[in-house]
Amino acid sequence: MTPTFPAFFSRTHAANPPAELTARIGPNAVTQLHAALIAAGLEAEAVQLFSAARAEDWLADRPAAMVDERRVARLAPSF
Predict the structure, then answer these.
(1) Residues β-bridged to residue 68
(2) CA-based Rg of the chain, rounded to a whole angstrom?
(3) CA-CA distance, 26 to 9, in Å (whole number)?
């Protein structure tokens, strides 16, 4: 089944929606994932995971506010 979008929502938007249409997720998603990896002794793997997801900036400075869920979602395929 192909999803349908409103007329104003082009295929370009579907791949790269404008910021005002993207979902946000709490910073705890990042903080707890990092903490779990460290607690499991997987610090090197955490660096690889966050780097592969283009989120290595969160290793040094984890977010304190809501973040674009697409950045968090990029962490999942790396598992």
Answers:
(1) 24
(2) 15
(3) 26
62 phi and psi, to 5 degrees?
Answer: -65, 145
Tokens of 13: 């938007």
The pLDDT score that the predictor gives to residue 23 is 87
Contact residues for 38 (Cβ-Cβ < 8 A; gap 6+):
46
Q: Is the pLDDT score of 3 beyond 60? A: no
Q: How many Å apart are CA 8 and CA 60, to the nearest integer? A: 39
pLDDT reported for residue 22:
77
CA 31 to chain centre: 12
Residue 74: which of 55, 53, 46 has the closest Cα?
Answer: 53
CA pair distance 53, 55, nearest whole angstrom: 5
